Amino acid sequence: MSSIFSLSMNLTSSPMLGDIAYFILWGMLFPLLAMVSFNFLRHKQCCYEEKRKVPPGEMGFPLIGETMEFFNAQRRNQLFEKFVHPRVVKHGKVFKTRIMGSPTVIVNGAEANKFLLSNEFKLVKSSWPSSSVQLMGSDSIMEKDGERHRFLRGVIGTSLGYVGLEPLVPRLCNSVIFHLAKHWQGQEKISLYRSTKVLTFSIVFECLLGINVEPGMLDIFERVLEGVFSPAIMCPGTKFWRAKKARMEIEKMLVKVVREKRKEIEGGLQREQDGMLLSKLICGMIQGEISEKEVIDNVVLLVFAAHDTTSFAVAMTFKMLAKHPDCYGKVLQEHVAIRRNKRWGENLTLEDIKKMKYTWQVARETMRLFPPIFGSFRKAITDIEYEGFTIPKGWKVLWTTYGTHFNEEYFKDPMSFNPSRFDEGMPQYAFVPFGGGPRVCAGYQLAKLNILIFVHYVVTQYEWFLLHPDESITMDPLPFPSFGMPIKIFPKHT
Ligand code: HEM
């Protein structure tokens, strides 16, 4: 060892040779050190696992573990069939693996979902990849714990909860009517998925937050979203690099909007009571309860949380309606009956929405079979005892929607499309497209209104046909129809 050191000392007298020696040295030492530390860690882990009973399963290759199998299955939208299910059969509902460098326990079943999701902050905390945190912002609600999380949810909840819905309904109706007039009228063929993305974006910005959508904004946001799950490599040309640049553009734009709105509110030009979420957040800022960064980060997060999820749910609902004409007939009946009691051009009310019971069953059954979010990661903040196993502190834990949605134990004939199954109750935490516990989706009610109101106006105004009835779904990492779900449309002459 000392001879290697002295060799390097001699060579470093010439700067050029010094660099070469340095690289050669590290080239030799690095693999050695990596092997020693890997073996040491593996030995430590084996001792730990012998003492405590960690769940069964395989950790795959050194460091990368089973990451490739996980991503390959995910990309083909076969995470359940190719990754989760074979391991459940082999090891049981709770099994260990290693994904993206972290030892991870995957839990399946309603009891496991309940245990994990309701113990947020006590046993686990949410665990997002570094790229997501950097792009969404470290001050968004997804990064907050305990009291701060409760406070921010309270503010966001006043606009997104049941009480905030009444004024949202007419705004959403106007948005949908405007969208159809601008993007559907006069067209023969459109991409349904693209259309729902444009609509969802303007609903979050204009109806919820109260910010005007300027040309080009959607593209910049989509560039940010593209990097949210990519490796956090800040090299020119990477997805993450592009996303980070887009995030900076958004930040600049939002800071301007926030400061202008703050001036308006402080100058008495605009009262908080415009009911918009941005005004509520800014009032919190004026009172010193919320920082400017918290406002910006949460605006970005809300767009991220709503965007691909709602658009996919709407698009797949239409796909299911096209594939199940009997269900479509019942949905149409529901909406024609509601329209019949309205004057021409009269908006829907919250009471009308409550009458869309069957449509909501169709949407929920769609999200059961095609969950927009397959599950999410948590990190154990203490050793967790579950079902006779120990999930060691620091390990990741993944709950999945598939673990219950595709399980005969909770849903009879689980792979068949049967919206009427929602006539009956089901075990808690079995139907979890919106998650559960303290981090249950904050935008559940908005997503529901978005889906129902869009279905209402489309089915009462248009006939449509899928151009690729067997279009596949790609996941990257959220699911989307591979060709954007092109449809042929014809206005109804009613
Ligand atoms: C069909 C559409 C949607 C689906 C399927 C969905 C699903 C989910 C899920 C599964 C979670 C929990 C994630 C976890 O446990 O880590 C979540 C959280 C969240 N969602 Fe949604 N979401 C949808 C639409 C929306 C919309 C429209 C908004 C708001 C504009 C929204 C805002 C949020 C927020 C803020 C959180 C984080 C809550 C927290 O950390 O306390 N979501 N969503």
Strand elements, count: 12
Catalogue the ligands. protoporphyrin IX containing FE
Spatial arrangement of strands, main beta sheet: 1-2-8-5-3
> Percent of residues in helical segments?
55-70%
What would the average pLDDT be, to the nearest integer? 88
Poorly predicted parts: 1-23
**Silhouette:** globular
Largest sheet entry: 5 strands, mixed
The H-and-E topology, N to C, reads as: HHHHEEHEHHHEHHHHHHHHEEEEHHEEEE
Radius of gyration: 26 Å
Residue fraction in strands: 5-15%
Span of the ends, CA to CA: 88 Å
Return the structural class.
alpha+beta
| Tally of separate helices | 18
What does the model show?
It is a single-pass membrane protein. Heme binds at residue 441. It comes from Clitoria ternatea. The protein has 494 residues and is an alpha+beta fold. It contains 18 helices and 12 strands. The strands form 4 sheets. A 5-stranded mixed beta sheet has the order 1-2-8-5-3, with helices on both faces. A hairpin with a 2-residue loop joins strand 1 and strand 2. Bound molecules: protoporphyrin IX containing FE. Residues 126, 141-142, 153, 204, 208, 302, 305-306, 309-310, 313, 372-373, 376, 433-435, 439, 441-443, 446-447 line the site of protoporphyrin IX containing FE (HEM). Protoporphyrin IX containing FE (HEM) is lined by residues 126, 141-142, 153, 204, 208, 302, 305-306, 309-310, 313, 372-373, 376, 433-435, 439, 441-443, 446-447.
